[in-house]
Amino acid sequence: MSGQTSTLISNIGELMTQDAEHRVLKDAAVVIEGERIAWIGPASEAPSADGHVDAEGRAVLPGWVDSHSHLIFAGDRTAEFEARMAGQSYSAGGIAVTTGATRAASDEELTRLAAGRVAEAVSQGTTYLESKTGYGLDLENEARSARIAAATVDEVTYLGAHLVPAGADAEEYTDLVCGPMLDAVRPYVKWADVFCERGAFTEEQSRRVLTACRDAGLGLRVHGNQLGEGPGVQLAVEFGAASVDHVNYLSAADIGALAGTWIGWDASTGTGTRGTVATCLPACDLSTRQPLAPGRALIDAGVQIALAANCNPGTSYTSSIAFCVTTAVLQMHLSVHEAVRAATYGGALALGRESGNDVDGERAVGSIAVGHRADLHMLKALSATHLAYRPGIPLTFAVWRAGVRAV
Ligand SMILES: N=CN[C@@H](CCC(=O)O)C(=O)O
Ligand SMILES: [Zn+2]
Fold first, then answer.
1. Is the CB of residue 226 below 6 angstroms from any atom belonging to ligand 1?
2. Atom 7, ligand 1: which residue's CA is nearest?
3. Angle formed by the axes of helices 107-122 and 139-150, nearest 10°
4. What positions does the entry give for Zn(2+) binding (predicted)?
5. Closest Cα to atom 4 of ligand 1
6. Secondary structure of 334-358 as H, E, C letters
7. CA torsion, ordered 406, 116, 313, 379, to nearest 10 deg
8. What ipTM is given for this predicted complex?
9. Most exposed residue of 196, 232, 334, 339, measured as fewest CB within 10 angstroms of its CB?
10. 134 C-alpha to ligand 2 centroid (Å)
11. What tens digit of pLDDT does each residue of 40-71 get?
């Protein structure tokens, strides 16, 4: 024993581990020790621990890993949403409204708003979150967003290339994103992203951003193929991006290219060379009235997918991963196990956190196995199937984040 406080959670009706063997254990138990999972197995064989929680037959899953969000913003876009529901289509231009409100907010206000959004996500079972910058769109405000994000979420992505701000020249702004702005955010971020879409950044501009950010040592991702077919997916594959997100409009060649990145990966053991995760954002697809991303076809082609909430004020003002899982099952034709996997292990894969070091480094998240971070989500239900069977019902009963009871 490590000397750290331990807790036994027993009488778990269904333990959906999302581990390498994809195990779903019945009548199971878990022991948490400090921030790590110390033991899992049949409840009848569980060791004793300092504390005890009786799950009373409830289901336990890994905490949700939300690998795509935009939490550093101020302001409101209800009017834009109402106009969209009345028939207008979504365009990238709405980002500028949020940029104005974000620039006008104080550091304290932005921090309070972001922390409130994180708390809302955690209260619904999310235990690991990424956030992007992207509503500052000048050097000072992108650096400020990155700094606030680094103090608020687990992983930070630089999205200076979200929109060319009003009045700026696109080429000059791209130079700024690739040069001084990148230097300013660099201490706070691990990832970089570019919105490669009509109305945002062209293929050539996106290529420049990805090259500069890769050369600066950042991991890459791309907002791609959200509003129509385009070069986003192919660029992500070419640059070896960790993920390409949205993926609503995919050609057969796009799906083939993504599948090709996973050829060196053994999905049954989670070993080998990681490819580009296709991150599906069903809440965003519904809120923008875009076709749902073809998650079923992607999985069938051998692509690893993630499900994320894409919480932002324009296209998806929700942090509910349960809603995304429900939609993925009911409308994207994923099994419950596949949908939960995409929202836990898949998110971890997109963030490079699916494996870890039990001794002296970062612990794996997104699956329940000995040595992984103790991020657990207990449902107010006997099985994970209830997430799809009882749409809209708040099913979070308890949450442990890095071993600490959060709900
Ligand atoms: N697509 C680009 N960015 C966000 C939306 C940003 C906004 O409209 O404020 C997204 O992921 O959907
Ligand atoms: Zn996004």
1. yes
2. 314
3. 40
4. 68, 70, 223, 310
5. 315
6. CCHHHHHHHCCHHHHHHCCCCCCCC
7. 20
8. 0.98
9. 334
10. 9
11. 999 999 999 999 999 999 999 999 999 999 99
CB 223 within 8 A of CB 194: yes
Q: What number of other Cβ atoms are within 10 A of residue 116's Cβ? A: 11
Provide the token pair at 22: 């994809």
The tens-digit pLDDT sequence of the chain (407 residues) is 467 999 999 999 999 999 999 999 999 999 999 999 999 999 999 999 999 999 999 999 999 999 999 999 999 999 999 999 999 999 988 999 999 999 999 999 999 999 999 999 999 999 999 999 999 999 999 999 999 999 999 999 999 999 999 999 999 999 999 999 999 999 999 999 999 999 999 999 999 999 999 999 999 999 999 999 999 999 999 999 999 999 999 999 999 999 999 999 998 888 999 999 999 999 999 999 999 999 999 999 999 999 999 999 999 999 999 999 999 999 999 999 999 999 999 999 999 999 999 888 899 999 999 999 999 999 999 999 999 999 999 999 999 999 999 99
CA of 70 to the centre of ligand 2 (A): 6
Residue with tokens 């809120």: 287
Query: Which of 66, 68, 70, 159 is the pocket-test mutation for ligand 1 (most atoms within 8 Å of CB)?
Result: 70
**Tokens encoding 283:** 């809440």
Give the Cα separation of 28 and 12 in Å (integer): 5
Mutate to test the pocket of ligand 1, among 315, 317, 324 (most ligand atoms within 8 A of CB): 315
Inter-axis angle of helices 95-104 and 139-150, nearest 10: 80
Structure tokens at 46: 């569980």
Which of ligand 1's atoms lies nearest the C-alpha of 316? 12
DSSP assignment, residue 388? Answer: H
- Residue 197, H or E segment: none
Cα three-residue angle 390-374-26, rounded to 5 degrees: 50
Phi and psi at residue 306, to the nearest 5°: -120, 155
Please choose, from the candidates 311, 324, 344, 362, the residue with its C-alpha nearest in 3D space to the C-alpha of residue 22: 344
- Residue 205 CA to residue 174 CA, distance in Å, equals 7
